[in-house]
């Protein structure tokens, strides 16, 4: 099995979700190389461990995003992209928008 | 599907087509789908835009409530939904729009930073961001600060009812009148010109005009801030105190909504708007519907969540965004660059169980995640609701309306089996527990009674328990609906309420008192025989 190379992706948080990330809306991050390609599920774990500043339960519940937070993968609904199973690629753009009242 | 991607990272050209689950747009059946709106309905970018824009025009067209040439005030919080509303109106009025909207919009924003503990710097920054969005629209706009509730006149709580004649005739007349005025004017964009004129006036004179029209204009407050803010630091403190005096977030949210509504109504009246558009989405209204049932507002659901809300008489509130889900709005804003400004509110970062409203939201949103038709089902329920007793003109028929939310009082009492009725009966039976009579301004009735709950009436000397007064002065609580009563009961002191509320309460109490005093001299008609106590 070959190792997948590290990948760089763009993350964006909006609708108040950015408050959980010190108010920073856009993040350019590099995911380290690992044997399997990165999927969204692993990305969420990585975000929780490396980016989330506070109250993780307001962003991640169980293994997925909190209901009410929309996920866009390259400007498309993640529901059309396989959701948690989507395999990330270099330069992907992942957007999280909270539609909840008050963020 | 996505397994195909493995090891093909370098192939960036063909990436998009491979990654996307191969579903096509259900409408044009050509372009790749970009989002799922409802179960099974996947739209491409263009079809989604068309669908979104069409829905807005259709909503307004179908209801025929907004007359051509009518002044309509858009209540814009800066959040996704109301920003989207503003954008739709902008698009609809632009020359390239196929079916042009024909009303004359203006914008009001209620700045609530004081209630949410924001610093002046934070508030100034947010207002500046909003102003730049509003300026781009070219519509006249007003920023009203929550502090200004302390200079509102009590007349804002008095609904002015104009009895509606046949709606369709009115609409036709308005259309005819509008067409004529357009023809006679040399320039065809007459409306735009008046808008532009007003714009120049609005920015500078907004606050001056807001204050000068009230009875309680506070001169010192203006000089204190050198005209930068239309309120004084004392008023900011008063807002903070008011909200700090409420124990629950549930009550705070309700109070904020009430005060916001009063400021919007007041602005609409002094600026001559007859319609107010609110940006509530269908997701928001579904939450409101269930939350309001929990809050004891079940009797008012139709008005609280319907397309149009006539309770204020002269000003009709309409909710043209009520068929869009929060998801649709968020997607539209993202895909088409609709600007919005996020402002942290009372419930920002609050735990899910922090308030009834917040808990209801997470309940519905979670249910929606597993059952995608949850919101639309609740929403459709709200469409079927009709007010069982319509809002009748207030003053002449003697129908009392709630001091705070302006809904008709006593609706619950007409149904003997209602919970409200049961509560009133049990309250009557346990008089000693309930505050009665007393002037509002003497306040702290709640505290007073709470302290003396266990003591005997005689020894306590508590004025609010006085039996003589009970028969002559109607108490403050009788001016409120069940739900608003709960909100006010959550406060530690009534004194902290803005003056216009207390003043209007006193006015209504005096009026009722006089009515009772002269009652024996009045001839009773059959009508009265039914309603008299
Ligand atoms: Zn299409
Ligand atoms: Zn009420």
Automatic annotation (TrEMBL), chain A:
The gene is urm1. This is Ubiquitin-related modifier 1. There is a cross-link at residue 103 (Glycyl lysine isopeptide (Gly-Lys) (interchain with K-? in acceptor proteins)). Belongs to the URM1 family. Pfam families: Urm1. Pathway: tRNA modification; 5-methoxycarbonylmethyl-2-thiouridine-tRNA biosynthesis. Acts as a sulfur carrier required for 2-thiolation of mcm(5)S(2)U at tRNA wobble positions of cytosolic tRNA(Lys), tRNA(Glu) and tRNA(Gln). Serves as sulfur donor in tRNA 2-thiolation reaction by being thiocarboxylated (-COSH) at its C-terminus by MOCS3. The sulfur is then transferred to tRNA to form 2-thiolation of mcm(5)S(2)U. Also acts as a ubiquitin-like protein (UBL) that is covalently conjugated via an isopeptide bond to lysine residues of target proteins. SUPFAM superfamilies: MoaD/ThiS.
From TrEMBL, chain B:
Transmembrane segments: none annotated. One of its GO terms (biological process) is protein urmylation. Pathway: tRNA modification; 5-methoxycarbonylmethyl-2-thiouridine-tRNA biosynthesis. It is found in: Cytoplasm. SUPFAM superfamilies: Adenine nucleotide alpha hydrolases-like. GO terms for cellular component: cytosol. It comes from the Eukaryota. Plays a central role in 2-thiolation of mcm(5)S(2)U at tRNA wobble positions of tRNA(Lys), tRNA(Glu) and tRNA(Gln). May act by forming a heterodimer with CTU1/ATPBD3 that ligates sulfur from thiocarboxylated URM1 onto the uridine of tRNAs at wobble position. Belongs to the CTU2/NCS2 family. PANTHER family: CYTOPLASMIC TRNA 2-THIOLATION PROTEIN 2. HAMAP family: CTU2. This is Cytoplasmic tRNA 2-thiolation protein 2.
């Amino acid at each position: 099995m070959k190792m997948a190379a590290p990948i760089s992706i763009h993350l964006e948080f909006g609708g108040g979700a950015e408050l959980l990330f010190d108010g920073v809306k856009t993040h350019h991050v590099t995911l380290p190389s690992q044997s399997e390609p990165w999927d969204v599920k692993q990305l969420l774990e990585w975000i929780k461990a490396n980016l989330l500043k506070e109250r993780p339960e307001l962003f991640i519940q169980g293994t997925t995003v909190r209901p009410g937070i929309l996920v866009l993968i390259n400007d498309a609904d993640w529901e059309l992209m396989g959701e948690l199973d989507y395999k990330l690629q270099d330069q992907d753009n992942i957007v999280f928008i909270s539609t909840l009242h008050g963020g | 599907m996505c397994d195909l991607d493995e090891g093909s990272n370098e192939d960036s050209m063909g990436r998009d087509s491979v990654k996307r689950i191969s579903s096509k747009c259900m409408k044009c059946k050509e372009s790749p789908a970009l989002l799922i709106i409802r179960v099974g309905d996947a739209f491409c970018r263009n079809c989604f835009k068309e669908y979104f824009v069409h829905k807005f025009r259709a909503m307004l067209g179908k209801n025929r409530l907004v007359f051509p040439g009518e002044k309509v005030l858009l209540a814009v919080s800066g959040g996704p939904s109301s920003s989207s509303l503003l954008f739709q109106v902008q698009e609809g009025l632009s020359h390239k729009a196929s079916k042009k909207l024909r009303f004359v919009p203006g914008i009001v924003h209620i700045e609530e930073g004081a209630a949410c503990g924001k610093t002046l710097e934070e508030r100034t920054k947010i207002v500046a961001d909003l102003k730049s969005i509003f300026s781009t629209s070219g519509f006249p706009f007003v920023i009203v600060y929550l502090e200004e509730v302390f200079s509102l006149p009590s007349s804002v709580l008095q609904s002015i009812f104009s009895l509606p004649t046949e709606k369709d005739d009115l609409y036709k007349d308005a259309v005819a009148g509008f067409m004529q005025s357009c023809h006679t004017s040399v320039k065809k964009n007459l409306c735009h010109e008046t808008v532009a004129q007003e714009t120049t006036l609005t920015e500078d004179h907004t606050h001056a005009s807001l204050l000068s029209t009230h009875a309680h204009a506070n001169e010192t407050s203006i000089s204190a801030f050198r005209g930068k803010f239309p309120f004084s630091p004392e008023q900011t403190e008063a807002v903070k105190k008011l909200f700090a005096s409420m124990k629950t977030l549930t009550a705070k949210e309700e109070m904020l909504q009430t005060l916001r509504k009063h400021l919007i109504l007041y602005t609409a009246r002094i600026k001559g708007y007859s319609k107010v558009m609110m940006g509530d989405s269908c997701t928001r209204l579904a939450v409101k519907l269930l939350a309001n049932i929990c809050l004891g507002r079940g009797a008012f659901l139709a008005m609280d969540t319907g397309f149009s809300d006539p309770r204020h008489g002269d000003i009709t509130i309409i909710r043209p965004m009520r068929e869009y889900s929060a998801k649709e709005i968020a997607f539209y804003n993202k895909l088409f660059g609709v600007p919005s400004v996020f402002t942290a509110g009372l419930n920002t970062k609050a735990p899910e169980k922090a308030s009834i409203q917040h808990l209801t939201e997470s309940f519905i949103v979670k249910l929606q995640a597993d059952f995608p038709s949850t919101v639309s089902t609740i929403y459709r329920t709200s469409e079927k609701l009709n007010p069982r007793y319509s809002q009748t003109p207030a003053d002449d028929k003697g129908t009392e309306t709630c001091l705070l939310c302006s809904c008709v009082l006593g609706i619950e009492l007409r149904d003997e089996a209602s919970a409200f009725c049961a509560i009133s009966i049990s309250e009557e039976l346990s008089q000693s527990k309930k505050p009665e009579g007393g002037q509002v301004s003497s306040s702290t009735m709640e505290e007073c009674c709470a302290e003396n709950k266990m003591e005997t009436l005689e020894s306590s000397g508590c004025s609010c328990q006085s039996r003589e007064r009970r028969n002559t002065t109607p108490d403050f609580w009788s001016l409120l609906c069940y739900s608003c009563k709960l909100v006010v009961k959550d406060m530690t002191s009534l004194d902290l309420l803005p003056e216009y509320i207390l003043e209007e309460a006193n006015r209504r109490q005096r009026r009722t008192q006089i009515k009772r005093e002269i009652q024996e001299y009045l001839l009773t008609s059959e009508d009265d025989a039914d309603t008299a106590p």
